[in-house]
Amino acid sequence: LDEVSQSLVDSCFHISIAKLLAGTFIFRARPGRGFYRPNELSYNPKGIGNNRFERASLPGDVVFYGCIADKTTQLESCRFMGLGECSSLMRDISSIGREFVTFGRWRTLHELKVATFITDKTYLKEQNNRHLHFFREYFAQKKTALSQEILDMAYFFASEFEKSVKIGEDWNYKITANLAHDIFLNKMADAIVFPSVPAGGQGGLNIA
Q1: In the 8-state DSSP scheme, what is residue 21?
Q2: Cα-only R_g, the chain
Q3: Rounded distance, CA 66 to CA 164, Å?
Q4: If you placed Cys at 122, which of 53, 118, 156, 180 could pair as Cys (CB 3.0 to 4.6 Å)?
């Protein structure tokens, strides 16, 4: 873990920054049912019980995960993405069973500065994701000013955020988890957005 963290500190990398407007809805899914209070659908404020790596957080980190999508399809898209992220049945296509999932809708009170490592090569086959398309186009416009070393790092980090990770192999998140941790620690952004790997880049973007 220390070696990964130090390597990231020593690296120069490109981050795309955008603003998430106040009043934006963030959808969050949680396995199970019978939740009646907002704090039951929120994050663990003390990080207790979080003893594994996740795509944008280290063990013990307190991070709120959710998803954002185009206003015209946000309910359907975020439900689809949320199921892909938290449902064991969705993540294992060979499984058969019954599962309950509860969805919560949250609204930002203030404008947020969000970072992303989406490049012009991120999920190129997905053409119906407006947010993803925006960041791909943004990177394409900016990349001519970047050195080859920075470009290589950008594509590498983007590939790490797109990596498919099997349940029980959370150590594969070490690079992105350390990267997100450093961004939050150094107050480079309020949140990170990235495509949903289980959803194949469809729907919208995950936010942490």
Answers
A1: P
A2: 17
A3: 18
A4: 118
Which has more confidence, 96 or 156? 156
Closest Cα to residue 47, out of 66, 63, 62? 62
Q: 51: which residues sit within 8 A by CB, 6+ positions away?
A: 59, 60
Q: Do 173 and 59 meet the contact criterion of CB atoms below 8 Å apart?
A: no
Strand order across the beta sheet in which 66-69 lies: 16-20, 112-116, 191-194, 204-207, 66-69, 25-31, 101-107
What are the φ/ψ torsions at residue 124 (nearest 5 degrees)?
Answer: -60, -30
Distance from C-alpha of 30 to C-alpha of 87, rounded to nearest angstrom: 9
Residue 77 phi, psi dihedral angles, 5° rounding? -65, -45
Which two structure tokens, joined as six digits, stand for 130? 């407006």
d(CA 97, CA 149): 47
Residues 6+ apart with CB under 8 A from 82: 27, 28, 29, 67, 101, 103
Give the least confident one: 30-34, 91-95, 103-107. 91-95
For helices 174-185 and 148-161, what crossing angle results, to 10°?
A: 110
